[in-house]
């Protein structure tokens, strides 16, 4: 069973915490992690891109000149694709980029990412942030005491905490998530993860 040091907000170790090996001690599965990241990034795409075909561009209903006798090539519309201001051939149309991924694969990918952070020593657990009202300076001090200043940090909370969220939102390279919104992309897109003791329990409950 993996163990991690438990810190207080001043950066001092106050004990140890046992981690569920079914969540934080699994075998890292890189192919599943890759599929989960691809699916997540695909789902983030809006898919609202659109260009107009020659039938959708306004105007161009009349032939620009008669069919024969002008010496020029025959033309049927000034909105044909080879005209300036004409329609686009094979342009993008709205589509859904979502890729299917099984729930078990998605869970395994998140477990693999968490396990990897534990193995690299980049998962830090604190007993509590102890922030009662939004104060960026207070959060900066906590991260500094944990030696995480100038690091890309993901803070995971067990539930909505406006004081902690607002204290961290203006700090560059710091992002806050609740356990319900945990995703593979944010786990990989950070250097360190900081979780409260309650957040660890909540993650274990969701993923175990």
Automatic annotation (TrEMBL):
Keywords: Ribonucleoprotein, Ribosomal protein, RNA-binding, rRNA-binding. One of its GO terms (molecular function) is rRNA binding. GO terms for biological process: translation. GO terms for cellular component: ribonucleoprotein complex; ribosome. It comes from the Bacteria. Gene3D superfamilies: 3.40.1370.10. Residues 48-78 are annotated as: Disordered. Pfam families: Ribosomal_L4. The keyword rRNA-binding applies. Forms part of the polypeptide exit tunnel. NCBIfam families: rplD_bact. Part of the 50S ribosomal subunit. HAMAP family: Ribosomal_uL4_B. Belongs to the universal ribosomal protein uL4 family. This is Large ribosomal subunit protein uL4. It comes from Anoxybacter fermentans. The lineage of its organism: Bacteria, Bacillati, Bacillota, Clostridia, Halanaerobiales.
């Amino acid at each position: 069973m993996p163990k991690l040091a438990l810190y207080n907000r001043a950066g001092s170790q106050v004990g140890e915490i046992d981690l569920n090996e079914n969540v934080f001690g699994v075998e890292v599965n890189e192919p599943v992690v890759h599929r989960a990241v691809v699916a997540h990034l695909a789902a983030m795409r809006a898919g609202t891109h659109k260009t107009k075909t020659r039938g959708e561009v306004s105007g161009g209903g009349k032939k620009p000149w008669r069919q024969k006798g002008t010496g020029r090539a025959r033309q049927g519309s000034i909105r044909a694709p080879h005209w300036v201001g004409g329609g686009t051939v094979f342009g993008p149309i709205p589509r859904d980029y979502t890729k299917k991924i099984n729930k078990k694969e998605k869970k395994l990918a998140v477990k693999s990412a968490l396990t990897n952070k534990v193995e690299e020593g980049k998962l830090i657990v604190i007993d509590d942030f102890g922030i009662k009202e939004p104060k960026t300076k207070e959060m900066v001090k906590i991260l500094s005491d944990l030696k995480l200043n100038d690091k890309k940090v993901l803070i995971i909370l067990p539930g909505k905490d406006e004081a902690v969220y607002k204290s961290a939102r203006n700090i560059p390279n710091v992002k806050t998530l609740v356990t319900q919104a945990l995703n593979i992309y944010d786990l990989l897109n950070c250097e360190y993860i900081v979780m409260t003791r309650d957040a660890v329990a909540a993650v274990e409950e969701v993923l175990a």
